[in-house]
Specification:
Radius of gyration: 20 Å
Structural class: alpha+beta
Strand content: 25-35%
Helix content: 25-40%
Distance between the termini: 56 Å
Largest sheet: 6 strands, antiparallel
Number of helices: 5
């Protein structure tokens, strides 16, 4: 699908707001040269699977930009800080249900001057946003920690519900659920490759290596992500 010209095919208010949005990002990004993280997200301007009374339809520029930035910062948080995880592998024969939980290890405020917008465009019914994040010293230390030791890199996919939640503030829940399912699959893949017998539990840390990719398939979100994984504890069934 051809990329729309912002100047010719976007309503004037959208174009003017986008220019201001990018200009403010340029001003806030005038920092010294250092390691830079980059990523791109897209927001559906006509999400027929998500309709809320308090949200304009199609999405206006302010709502689309806010959602794109919220999603962007979530992925940068996942790359820098990551999550701790608790995984009960589960086994049908023993009537043990599978359960996987993620716990965030850090956050980035939307007002962080190191989070900058570099470009934006509309293609079809999607608003695309390109951003950069310039981590500070402690954050660079965290990134370095994800590259050494027993950290393993793996790719996995997961799914999440496409239907919209009750509250508009939860608009990203389906994508987050798909990403968490992909993280579960990543941990499971590593365990299958390293453990001869199925363990009861696994605990450790996991982070994004880059922004995940999404598509819609059979009425569900599908997330494909590259992870950095550090398994710290494996509990065998023999321990119980």
């Amino acid at each position: 699908m051809k990329k729309r010209s912002l100047r010719l095919q976007i309503r004037r208010p959208f174009y003017e707001n986008l220019l201001l949005f990018l200009f403010m990002g340029f001003l806030s990004g005038s920092l010294g040269a250092q390691e830079v993280l980059r990523g791109r997200v897209w927001v559906d301007l006509e999400p027929v699977y998500q309709r809320f009374v308090d949200v304009p339809y199609p999405l206006d520029t302010v709502t689309a930009q806010r959602r794109a930035l919220e999603e962007t910062k979530f992925y940068f948080e996942g790359m820098i800080y990551g999550w701790s995880f608790d995984y009960e592998v589960g086994e049908r024969a023993r009537k043990i249900e599978e359960n996987f939980e993620l716990h965030s290890l850090g956050s980035i405020p939307l007002s962080d001057p190191r989070l900058t917008v570099t470009d934006g465009s509309v293609e079809g019914s999607r608003f695309y946003l390109w951003t950069e994040y310039r981590p500070d010293g402690p954050q660079r230390g965290r990134l370095k920690g994800w590259e050494g030791g027993q950290v393993q890199k793996t790719q996995a996919s997961g799914t999440g519900p496409l239907a919209g939640p009750v509250e508009s503030s939860q608009w990203m829940d389906g994508k987050k659920e798909a990403l968490q399912d992909a993280a579960r699959a990543a941990v499971r893949t590593i365990l299958r490759g390293t453990e001869r017998n199925r363990p009861k539990e696994a605990h450790g840390f996991i982070a994004l290596a880059e922004f995940p990719l999404y598509r819609i398939e059979m009425g569900r979100w599908v997330a494909i992500a590259q992870f950095r994984l550090d398994i710290r504890e494996i509990v065998p069934f023999a321990a119980y």
